[in-house]
Amino acid sequence: MRDERTPNARVTRSGMRGQIGDFLRRAAPALLPIGLLLLTACGGEHPRDTLNPAGDSAEVSAWFFWLYMILDTVIFAIVAMFFVAAIVKFRRKPGDDTLPPQSHGNMKLELMWTVIPTFIIIGLSIITVGGVFKLDGRPALEQRQVQVDVIGKQWWWEYDYTQHGFSTANEMHVEEGTAVSLQLASADVIHAFWVPRVSGKRDATPGRVYPLRFTPKLLNDIGEDPTKVKEFVGQCAELCGASHARMGIKLFVHPKTGPNSYDNWVTSMKKAAAEPTTDVQEKGKKLFGEKGCVACHNIKGHYDFRSPRSRTTGPDLTHVGSRSTIAANTLPTNVDNLAKWIKNPQAIKEAALMTNLGLNDEDSKAIAEYLMNLK
Amino acid sequence: MSAEAALDHGHAEGHDDHADGHDDHGHGDLVENNYMKVPNIKLAIWTFLGSECMFFGSLIATYFFYHEKSITGPLPQEIFSIEITSISTFILLMSSWTMAMAVDAIKQGKTGRTVNFLLATAVCGTVFVSFQVYEFWHFYHMGLALQTSLFGSTFYTMTGFHGAHVSVGVIWLLIMAIMVKKGYITGEKAYSIESGGLYWHFVDIVWIIIFTFVYLLEFAKPLSDAVK
Amino acid sequence: MSAKLHTIEDIESPPPDMHFERGLKSGITDWLTTPDHKKIAVLYSLSGFIYLLVGGLEAILFRIQLAVPDNNFMGGDTFNGMVTMHATTMVFLAIMPMTAGLANMLIPLMIGARDVAFPRLNAWSYWTFLFGSLVLNFSFLHPGAGAPSAGWFGYAPLTGPEFAHAGVDYWWAGLALLSASSLAASINFIVTILNLRAPGMTLFRMPVMIWMLLVIQFLLALAFPPVTVGLILLGFDRMFGTLFYQVSMGGDPHLWQHLFWVFGHPEVYVLILPAMGVVSEILPVFARRPLFGQIAIIFSGIFIGFVGFGVWAHHMFTSGMGPVADAAFAATTAIIAIPTGVKIFNWLGTLWNSKLSFPTPMLFALSFIPMFTIGGLSGLMHASPPLDLQQHDSYFVVAHFHYVLVGGALQGLFAGFYYWFPKVTGKMLNDTLGKIHFWLFLIGFNVTFFPQHILGNNGMPRRIYTYPADAMWGFENMLGTAGALIMGSATLIFAYNMFVSFKKGEEAGNDPWDACTLEWLTTSPPHVANFEFTPIVLSERPVWDHKYTDGHEIVAPDKSESFHMPSYSWKPLIVSSCVLTIVLGLLLNTFIPGSYLWGLSVVGGVGTVLGVYAWVTEPV
After folding, report:
1. What number of CA atoms fall less than 13 Å from residue B29's CA on the CB side?
2. Quick one: pLDDT at residue A19?
3. Which of A327, B153, C46, C90 sits 20 to 30 Å CA-CA off A235?
């Protein structure tokens, strides 16, 4: 029993303008994303552009991106083409009650569009497996390496340069063209270390240590000044609590030679902390000891840390004045910001584990002055 | 083929299963065309048991994931008593026999016999659970708590959930016994006792797996190199 | 028995007391005690839709926070709570119940049965779902804590007693109730589909919608237990101090990840396959021809369901499983692309050589194809670890799964609502409002999510409550917020349409769309016992073939055939309340230690046993 009312009889406009209008309306689902892509892809150099690789690992990832992107675009174009063509070509004309051919399928087509994708998938899988093992490759043992033990903590990064015997935090320094070998661990929950332009990410899992290896490209090769240090930025990429968004990473790639070389940086980091030069800094140094900062922070030569390291041990502050930011890339390093942080860490970073010692403005500023001098 | 024939014989055109047109109106059973020739309740229990395989599979896999990874606390070999656990295992195995006898009895319409065997099964199950309770109490006093070590956490949780399933089974058996006694279940509905039997046998099989791989396998190697 | 043969034309409107419509306007007692799958379907669908709005509101709130850099509309823990609840709500409280609503309404109708195999268990599933959803949302009110903020995937040890506040207790307890609800429902539907089909309906004469619903019931029955175990282990860590995820005592966070994702991956196929079923039902009707390659589409669905159990660790490529595991899961994940492609090509084949018309359900069904294709293609990228190491935990993944879940699953559900609303209520939804809903939603959706591919490529991680201006993510985030508001408006228009059309929409009649399957045989709304006569099925498009093929009769026996409909009962609601009490006892005992409130759990347990006894001995 057919329903008398025929809601299928949607009137479609005839004539050229109507046809184009219809086409646009029907094809919009396919055209919209492409239009938006063009709109939003414009812009300057993005500081974390994974498609502008500055490390060998990121380069492999970017290569895979373009491989899949081309394939995906071709596939989508084929689907979109048939989709739009069908919608335009096979519209029911108003008043036409006849049935189209009631075919149930076509074995040849089924086989074709099962077998061809199977071969494509097999090909992609072989290439992918190759990429998996390539990215897991270890650099040759005799090769010069920068080795850093990375410990993720809520919400900052500890870097132990055990080769050289010092520790720093949040800002990692490496050398161009030299293999970097990170051992990722965590003191509390799962974090993930990610500097997009240089490498894909890896999890830092408590109870496990897992390596992340990459080699930053030569500064010359990425169009940078080969005598200056190049800065890359990243952050934690695994939800780790209230201040997950404030767990930033900076990666400084040094030239191999010259005044800004990596070796020079290592030498400066091995030195003990700088002595205070003003009275305020002297006062700050004293307060650092009296007020309890020593319970969590190491300053080589002034307050060498004796307690066993724990989950809540804070960053090494021996050269904190030479770090470009504090609180894991939350604020630029200067006396005012240091003082604000010392006075009330939780106001700057929600739920920060650094104890609020209840210091007044004057004392905070003094300690800040002391720390700012530790370059 | 004619539709009339389809109705009369309940035969449908088709290359696979055929409609058995006989009605099986039970109590609110909406079984009209029992394609699978398996009563609704029985099919439901089979599906449920499939799900339970994944449930116990995950618990047992967790046990093995953490096997020999405990940092502290008593080791399995130090506290397991294979003799006592063998007795409780035997009793549980016997209960599968009494359960099978109960199903056999209901199929012959012998409701009195059915009730007796159902109760016997329930008693066996209760004895098993009592042995488990004793075992847990004993281990606890030897220094193994839930919070002591990974062994404590995984062992108690896995066997505890098994014991809980046995306990639920005992309640199920008692309910079935009451229902047979009161005449709610008769010979025509033997499949509902059979379905309870399926659950009971499953719980038994899970125990066999646990007993073999958790208890017995600990003693397959000499004590010296088990203490790693 | 010789039967008097009837044809469809002989089916008249049933007498008023048998009419389902009165059912929709019946009193509250009816709704609380109903065993009728159609009423339960309405309960599920309405609840799911309300939670869709709740989840949408949560999204709009956190999108306001993300609209500009360095915003302070909400802090870190609040934001994390919003994203956690948004995801948990959308997956478990919106898409799944709306799917359950479709399943409940359609399975008996499409297979020619009178109800599901276990009507009271069906009701129990709904109440348990409702209670689970309330437990989850009660977290907002917990003093000093609030909504769970450890992500919908709840990675340990962030969810452990050391790091997460009470919100996570509501989370694992609510999800435990939801898993029980789903398990019972899946058993019910499997038995119904396998055992209660009308005479003549062999498995391959079943509609594709029913096939997809059958496959997901197996996925639910087998995939939920691992995460139930994972949640129990987490609950034990939090309540009893066990060591399952305690790293300092040897616990391994990867245990949680494996247990969760063994469930989590089949779960996404649970979310998408029914929508694919809806598309497979709607396209042929408005193309006026059969579904192209119906058998291939069915087998593809089965294959996807099966292989979907073997790909879970593609969510763990960055976790350090080692290259062998990475490579293995990369290969299995890529395989799923093949049957997915087969479905898409067959749908295109359905459109070819057809006669298309475009009412609102067809617009949503059509739009599914390109949107889901985009999502599927970005998913194919994620299957490759070298690429996924950059994309994982970035906005590229957010773009991917919103394309498949919103552009795919939600559009499919919208299509289903527009298509079957006339059958359920007897009224047509307003087509003009429908088209406004469609276009507004499509535009808003693409405006929000397409730029997120760019954000991912530009290194923006997931779940960050704010970002600095120099990250250069501001423009796409602003678009994201604008699009969210557009989607919200579109959805409100849809809600308005449903409300207004239910009251005074155009009368639908039995078969307003000139469709193919058995549900269009009966009245709109359906007879309380679904069909006045038991249909006999001789093909996979019984109603269509009756209309358009000479001599194809849908025979029915004499009207005097009697059948027994299930009775109303309070037991499902009572037993479900007792199960809730067990859970509440555990929760309260965790919040107020040493209070003996676990006694409530004992009371709940006893109540459950007594209630079940009353249930099984109840005359039906």
Report:
1. 20
2. 54
3. C90
Residues C337, C350: Cα–Cα separation, whole Å: 20
On whether both C215 and C309 belong to a single domain, the answer is yes
| Residue C443: inside a domain | yes
Domains and CATH numbers, chain B: 1-37 (no CATH), 38-227 (1.20.120.80)
C350-376 mean pLDDT? 97
Residues of chain A with Cβ-Cβ distance to C501 below 8 Å are none
Domain count of the fold of chain C? 2
pLDDT digits (tens, 9 = 90+) for B13-65: 333 333 333 333 333 334 345 566 789 999 999 999 999 999 999 999 999 99
Flag whether C49 is in a domain.
yes
Among the candidates C487, C514, C541, a domain finishes at C514
Distance CA A92, CA C447 (A): 31
If residue A230 lies in a helix (H) or strand (E), which one and from where to where? strand A230-235
In 3D space, the residue among A145, A218, A154 whose CA is nearest the CA of residue A183 turns out to be: A145
Shortest alpha-carbon distance between residue A240 and chain C (Å): 7
A312, pLDDT greater than 90: no
Q: What is the DSSP letter of C527?
A: B
C359 contacts A28? CB cut-off 8 A: no
CB A57 within 8 A of CB A199: yes
Do residue C477 and residue C360 come from a single domain? yes
Query: Would you say residue C536 has pLDDT above 90?
Result: no
- Flag whether residue C454 sits within 8 Å of chain A, measured between CB atoms: yes
pLDDT band at A49 (very low <50, low <70, confident <90, very high): very high
Is residue C531 very low, low, confident or very high in pLDDT (cuts 50, 70, 90)?
confident
Residue window 174-233, chain A: list those with CB within 8 Å of chain C: 184, 188-190, 192, 194, 196-197, 199-203, 205-208, 210, 233
Residues A101-112 have a mean pLDDT of: 96
Q: Higher-confidence residue: C392 or B10? A: C392
Say yes or no: C604 and C504 in one domain. Answer: no
Interface contact flag, B12 C222, Cβ < 8 Å: no
Distance from CA of A140 to the nearest CA of C (A): 18
List A156's β-bridge partners, or say none.
A153
Instruction: Identify the sign of the CA torsion B95, B101, B104, B105.
Output: negative
C498 and C577 share one domain: no
CA distance A270 to chain C (A): 32
A342 and C CB contact within 8 Å: no
pLDDT reading at C372 higher than 60: yes
Contacts of B178 in chain C (CB under 8 A): 613
Q: Which of C468, C492, C514 is the last residue of a domain?
A: C514
Judgement on whether residues C303 and C445 belong to the same structural domain of the protein: yes
Verify whether the Cβ–Cβ distance A33 to C450 is below 8 Å: yes
* Predicted pLDDT of residue A22: 55
Q: Are C and B close enough to touch, i.e. 3+ CB pairs under 8 angstroms?
A: yes
C349 contacts in chain A (CB < 8 Å): 105-106, 109
Give the range of the structural domain holding residue C594, as residue numbers without chain letter: 570-620
**C187 in the same domain as C112:** yes
Q: Is C201 part of a structural domain of the chain?
A: yes
Across the interface, do C345 and A75 touch by the CB < 8 Å criterion? no
pLDDT computed for residue C55 by the predictor? 98
Do C and A make contact, counting contact as 3+ CB pairs within 8 angstroms? Answer: yes
- Same domain for C391 and C279, yes or no, is yes
How many angstroms separate the CA atoms of C313 and C327, rounded? 10
Residue C431 is predicted with a pLDDT of 97
Q: Residue C27's pLDDT is what?
A: 86
Which subunits sit against C, judged by 3+ Cβ pairs under 8 A? A, B
Helix, strand, coil shares of chain C, percent, nearest 5, are 70, 0, 30
Q: Which of C99, C128, C280, C601 is catalytic?
A: C280
Task: Name every chain A residue with its beta carbon within 8 A of the beta carbon of C356.
Answer: 86-87, 90-92
Domain membership flag for residue C540? no
Q: Which segment of A62-71, A305-314, B182-191, C187-196 scores lowest on mean pLDDT?
A: A305-314
3-state DSSP call for residue C251? Answer: coil
- A295 token code pair: 């319970």
* Dihedral of the alpha carbons of C76, C81, C86, C88, in degrees to the nearest 10: 140
Return the CATH number at C504: 1.20.210.10
Are residue C177 and residue C274 in the same domain, yes or no? yes
Element at A148 (helix H, strand E): strand A145-153
> What is the average pLDDT score of chain C?
93
